[in-house]
Amino acid sequence: MDFYAESIVLGGVYEVCSGEVRVMQSTAGLMWSNLTKAVLPTRRLVTMATMGNSQSKRPLKGVVFDMDGTLTVPCIDFRLMYRKVLGDDHPSVVNNSPVDILHEISSWSSEKQVQAYAIITEIEKDAHEKLQVMPGAKEVCTFLDSHHIPRGLITRNVKDSVDFFHSQFGLSKFSPALSREFTPCKPSPAPLLHICDIWGISPSEVMMVGDSAPDDIVCGNRAGALTCLLDEEERYHINELPEEQRPTHKIQSLLELNSVLESYNLQLVDAALPSQRQN
User: Fold this and answer.
1) Is 160 a catalytic residue?
2) Can you spell out the DSSP letters for 65-121?
3) What global pTM score does this model have?
4) pLDDT on residue 37
5) Which of 2, 68, 160, 211 is flagged as catalytic?
6) Over the stretch 161-206, which tens digit does the pLDDT of each residue have?
7) How much is the pLDDT for 90?
């Protein structure tokens, strides 16, 4: 069963475009939108140095990855994207500060949104020529596959970029692989909850891995999942982060992730295997 068919079975709001069914809002997204506040438990960071027997018996049945900056080496020129889409006078461009560009343009008129997405997509496709798999990605995939642990993907990039990634590096596909055509996107927990529904696995038994605390870690924490922050350049000071941006684990290289995964009780879930085997 492909992604769109799986989505229809689960229910939600959809759009049919040129014969393709696109998820406009998932059941998980509709449920999340009715919540006014996420109640998050106090989180203790578990680093490579502090990992021990406390995590060894906790079950882990699936792992979901971000793509850009996690599975692939960062290569998108976001500064160029901000300038072309938002303009040179926008505060984020003037102050060289981060901005959630998808959220920024969501309130624009339909015509302006179409123009903005065309620019974003062009820049993303230009980055394909420089795309490289992140060191450690193949090792992690091999490890998870050898333990029959399903692996999914959530990205704010366009679906064409996901397809390009799958075609280039000799990795079996991540399934489900949700691009920004799935709404709402990260940091909403909706895409992660959607994947958990497809797998038939509780979010508490799934780990979200990514390089963005505001997007990937918040998505995972709001869903009630385990979280692992890839922070190669030590950009994040954990004690200074808001509670919902604090990860369960923090690593500097994807090569460290296998050690994190080995600290859990990796459990096979038969229902999650067919789609993984088909890719």
Assistant:
1) no
2) E--BTTTB-----HHHHHHHHH-TTSHHHHTT----HHHHHTTS-HHHHHHHHHHHH
3) 0.71
4) 39
5) 68
6) 899 999 988 889 999 999 989 999 999 999 999 999 999 999 999 9
7) 79
The secondary structure element, H or E, covering residue 9 is helix 3-10
pLDDT of the residue at 13 = 36
DSSP code for 265:
E
pLDDT digits (tens, 9 = 90+) for 244-264: 999 999 999 999 999 999 999
Radius of gyration for the chain, computed over Cα atoms and rounded to the nearest angstrom? 18
Q: How far is CA 54 from the centre of its chain?
A: 26
Residue 228, phi then psi, degrees to nearest 5: -135, 120
Measure the CA–CA gap between 148 and 15, rounded to whole angstroms. 34
Residue 19, both tokens: 């014969």
Give per-residue burial for 210-229: e unless 16+ CB within 10 Å, then b.
bbbbbbbbbbbbbbbbbbbb
Q: Which domains does the chain have, with CATH numbers?
A: 26-73+132-278 (3.40.50.1000), 78-130 (no CATH)
Give me 238's structure tokens. Answer: 């954990």
The β-bridge relationship of strands 20-26 and 12-17 is antiparallel
Q: What are phi and psi of 151, to 5 degrees?
A: -130, 130
> Which one-letter amino acid corresponds to residue 176?
P
* Residue 66 annotated as catalytic: yes
By the 8 A CB rule, do 234 and 252 touch?
A: yes
DSSP state letters, 15-53 = EEETTEEEEEEEHHHHHHHT-S---------EETTT--G
Binned at pLDDT 50, 70 and 90, residue 99 comes out as confident
Residues in the chain: 279
Instruction: Say if residue 130's pLDDT is above 60.
Output: yes
- Greater pLDDT, 19 or 268: 268
